[in-house]
Amino acid sequence: MSKTGSIGLIGFDDRERNQLEVFLNSSENPGFVESDPVKSDALLVNLASADDKKRFLRWYAGRPDCPVVAVVDDQTVSGGMHTLKRPMTLAGLKKVLREVIREIQFSSSGSGSSNAAEGEAPSLLKMSPEELKALIAASGVTPKKTKPRTPEQDVGRDGRKENLILRWSDAEWQSLVRSACGTLPDLDLSNPADRRRLSFSAAAQGRFLEQINQAVLKGREKGKPVQLTGIPGELLYFPELDLFSYDLDPDLLIQMANSRFGPGELGCEELEEQSPNRPTAQRDELLWVLALFTSAGRVPDYLDPAAPLILKEMPDLSRFLLTPHAERIARAWYAEKQSATAIASALKIPQRYVFSFMVAADAAGLFERQ
Fold first, then answer.
1. In CATH, what number is assigned to the domain containing residue 38?
2. Which residue has the higher pLDDT, 147 or 258?
3. What's the CA dihedral at 5, 8, 13, 18 to 10 degrees?
4. Sheet holding 68-72, edge to edge
5. Quick one: pLDDT at residue 14?
6. Mean pLDDT of the 122-142 span
7. Does residue 15 have a pLDDT over 50?
8. Nearest C-alpha neighbor of 145 from the set 39, 22, 3, 44
9. I need a surface site. Which of 110, 131, 160, 251 has the fewest CB within 10 A?
10. What DSSP string describes 9-43?
């Protein structure tokens, strides 16, 4: 991927910044390298409110003009800014960044500055002096850089170099587990309000996990490998081997599990017979991880935490990203048929740990079904 220009990220929280940094390091990046916003060729700015816009414009007035992409909800921005409305999608982000690249190329070609005397527009960016007043002051002028991984870090937690899903350091793993289990307190599930707080709609469109499940179903139905489309990388399901082959970074997998995609943005297509030539992960391992981060401690509406369940067999938990008390929960669910709420009460542990295990184990197909 050749780099056309530099871009600075301003005003995004850690989660969105990490997601954008992953995108900029992927093959889907149309040509930008992330840099200090003070010196960058372009800016990608989070303008979640009118106050954000005022602060940004105040800061922007102190630096040379450059193309600006404003990420907004509903508010309007100046005519000179490119606009990217939420929810951000990969397709929308790529489209607007390609427009910015053309703008930078137009400017650097000399078309703007050399023809200014002849009355042609010196820049495609048209902001009035009144609009150029704003900031993002203290927060994000120096973006966080991701440290490159060492060869040792490329080895999974189980020692298998090929298994990128488990390729996290202990510190990263602890942080991931906190995200996977969420922060919900113990709830009274006889209370309708608490039930609504815990549950989320699994039928809602745009979830990455649902598209993965569709790829599995299609692969098994057709008996051929299936590739997921619309993502910045390669992810293939091989039904005969019941595994995935992929070149995605595990951090990107988590970001996609957390994200919602627009209609038609994701899809899957059959491939001619071939063998995996990338790092691989078993189907149940990938679905386990994606289910954890899709639910984040909540429960999809097709699962009842008060309904009794039992494991088909005692699983080899060393293959999975384990949440707290996972071994104890697995032993309890293997010993007898019981509900998630009953296990949480019997083991005297927070409900969210049992709910997270239940959702992941269900996605991986570990429970008996009637």
1. 3.40.50.2300
2. 258
3. 30
4. 32-34, 5-10, 42-46, 68-72, 82-85
5. 74
6. 31
7. yes
8. 22
9. 110
10. EES--HHHHHHHHHHHTSTT--SEEE--TTT-SEE
Tokens of 78: 């100046």
Residues 292-300 have a mean pLDDT of 89
Q: In degrees to the nearest 10, what's the CA dihedral of 234, 89, 1, 143? A: -120
Token representation of residue 216: 């599995």
On whether the CB atoms of residues 74 and 99 are closer than 8 A, the answer is no
**Structurally, how many domains does the chain consist of?**
2
Task: Tell me the CA end-to-end span of the chain in Å, nearest whole number.
Answer: 51
> When comparing pLDDT for 265 and 196, which is higher?
196
* pTM strictly above 0.85: no
Domain that holds residue 188: 170-364
Domain closes at, from 80, 105, 130 = 105
Beta bridge partners of 207: 260
Instruction: For 231-297, give the DSSP string.
Output: SSS-EEEETTTTEEEE---HHHHHHHHH-B--TTTSEEEE--S----S-EEEHHHHHHHHHHHHHTT
Boundary-marking domain end, from 88, 105, 122? 105
Average pLDDT, the chain: 77
* Element spanning 333, H or E: helix 326-335
Distance CA 251, CA 153 (A): 13
Which residue stretches of 109-249 are H helix? Answer: 170-181, 192-198, 208-222
Residue 125: both structure tokens together: 């960016």
What is the distance between the alpha carbons of residues 249 and 234, in angstroms, rounded to a whole number? 10
Let me know: does 344 contact 318? Beta carbons within 8 Å.
no
d(CA 59, CA 237): 48
AA letter at 161: K
Pairing of strands 243-246, 199-200: unpaired
**What integer pLDDT is reported at residue 118 of this predicted model?**
30
Q: What are phi and psi of 353, to 5 degrees?
A: -70, -40
> Nearest 5°: CA angle at 13, between 10 and 18?
90
- Return the structure tokens found at 124: 């495609």
Decide if 323 contacts 147 (C-beta within 8 A): no
Residue 177 confidence (pLDDT):
75
